[in-house]
Amino acid sequence: MDVHCENVRTLNVNVGIMGHVDCGKTSLARAISTHFSTASLDKHPQSIERGITIDLGFSSFMAPVEGSLFTLPYDQIQFTIVDCPGHASLIRTVLGGAHIIDIMLLVIDVNKGIQTQTAECLVVGELTANNLIVVLNKIDVIPSKLREVVVSNMQKRLSKAIKTTRFGDCKMVPVAACPGGADKMDVYGSPLGIDILVANLMALVSSAQKRLQGGDFLLAADHCFPVKGHGTVLTGTVLKGQCRVGDIVELPHLKLQKKVRSLQVFKRPVQTCAVGDRVGMCITQFDSKLFERGIVAAPGTVPSFIAAVVSAEKIRFFKGIVHSKMRYHVTVGYTTVMATAVFFKAPCHPASLATSAKSCEEGILFGSQDDIITSTCSTWALLRFDRPVTCPAGSKYVASRFDADIHKNSCRLAFHGRIIHPSVEDPASVKHIKVFTMKKRFGSVDRVHDVKTVIGKGMFKKETDMTIFQGLRVFTSRGEIGTIAGAFGKSGKFKVCLKDGVSPSDLKGNASRLILNYKHFLFGKEAGKQMKQ
User: Fold this and answer.
1) What SS3 class is residue 392?
2) Are 459 and 514 in contact (CB under 8 A)?
3) Is 509 inside a domain boundary?
4) Residue pLDDT, tens place only, 199-254
5) Contact 204, 173 (CB under 8 A)
6) Cα→Cα distances 170→59, 67, 130, 150, 165, Å
7) Same domain, yes or no, for 367 and 269?
8) Residues 156 and 223 in one domain
9) Domain end call among 242, 262, 297
10) What is the domain range of residue 402?
């Protein structure tokens, strides 16, 4: 588009193309696009060498505002195509691209159906996208007499699988993105079904454009390169807020602030960019080698942290066991970091409270630690990262086991949720995280000390600090209530004051057993220093 057309109101809709390796994703992106960015369609040298997509590719096409879309305050629709790699080893790149898309195109080879990465991409779509279109590619391979029947049968098969997801009865569009293959396209003619696919994309524009408006500026930058005589260009998708030429922005993980020299949308100069836009941002006096992918934001709005309380829900397709203290690959935006997880639940508090940062700040006890999380209960976790993570509170994350065998037909995405309360402190001393596990100790009455007091044994070791248990209630096996008064000697014995007193005849047999139930706190100032009930 010419520069003088800047006043044309353009709505940008981000469309992610995902699917199994070699199903024709890049061919589809090429067939549907008319404008190509500096990071489009397998421009990475290794993509050319290996013949597969290994990085995110960006391109676009324009469409006029028609029909029901006339009610929108825009003059044209720009569809930004995000071409995602399909190889199993590159799933973290797919996760990085997924958080910026509005509509997902799940490309399936009509002759093969759902394959391993098809299923994994469908899971990613469920977690990140609001709209889905299934694209049945390579219909040109099917003889024309059988094509309608084969496509119909595949649609029925896929419909059963997709109905189990939140996308329900999504549209399925048969296409041939590159008839006869790349080498024979001139012989076999133009792509098939693209017009129908575009029409289906247009039908989803109204729901796709319902983004959160306002807020502080936030850009997910995926590409960085120098331009001689101008500066360094960061390209990415605006996730929140807006930015104007001349504004100061921050690269939070580098702790650097820079002035915006200029803005472009697919090589078209603009003065401002807003949520949803695919934009190139030029800044000066910045070494492009310092930045590959990450966040650009309004100054002081995005923290870096080494731990976070998160909501956690197990992904139902993950067949492994999700244990506390296991390590996971946690993907937030374009960043994947190893983290150790501890899971817990908050049965006493409504989800609206337990998912807020305020609930953490007020020191609410979330509940007892879980060894395993399930998708049927509200579960939270403390993630302790191996290195600092930079992202806004509220960001979505996905935890995976990328160390699993990529050749096995199994989902590697384990659980997901949102960052609720990021913490810059050492997780062992975070005061607001009052997570506990219920503990039980058993002992017995050694002897009666007086009419109100007995001496207990067998519950503690001689080196145990008895002061942290002092004042806790104990019970006899018959239900009598007592209180630990303190240590008795240095052998691990202790005094118990019984509420209603006791006689030697009452403490025979099972009645001589002492039981202590208490909360053991895992983190914060109370961890290991004070037991509570």
Assistant:
1) coil
2) yes
3) yes
4) 999 999 987 777 666 789 999 998 899 999 999 999 999 999 999 999 999 999 99
5) no
6) 24, 21, 11, 19, 10
7) no
8) no
9) 297
10) 304-429
* Number of CB atoms found within 10 A of residue 128's CB: 19
Query: CA–CA separation, 422 vs 382, rounded Å?
Result: 10
In a shared domain, residues 311 and 281: no
pTM exceeds 0.90:
no
Q: At what angle do helices 25-32 and 194-203 cross, to 10 degrees?
A: 80
Task: Report residue 310 CA to chain centroid gap.
Answer: 10
What are the distances in angstroms from CA 376 to CA 194, 314, 345, 372, 379?
41, 9, 12, 12, 9
Q: Are residues 276 and 170 in the same domain?
A: no
How far is Cα 203 from Cα 209, in angstroms, rounded to an integer? 12
The partner residues of 312 in beta bridges, in order of sequence, read 379
The number of domains in the chain is: 4
Q: What length is written for the chain?
A: 533
| Tens-place pLDDT, residues 277-321 | 889 999 999 999 999 889 999 999 999 999 998 989 888 888 888
Question: Distance between CA 331 and CA 390 in Å, rounded?
Answer: 11
Q: What are phi and psi of 236, to 5 degrees?
A: 180, -165
- What CATH number does residue 456 fall under? 2.40.10.190
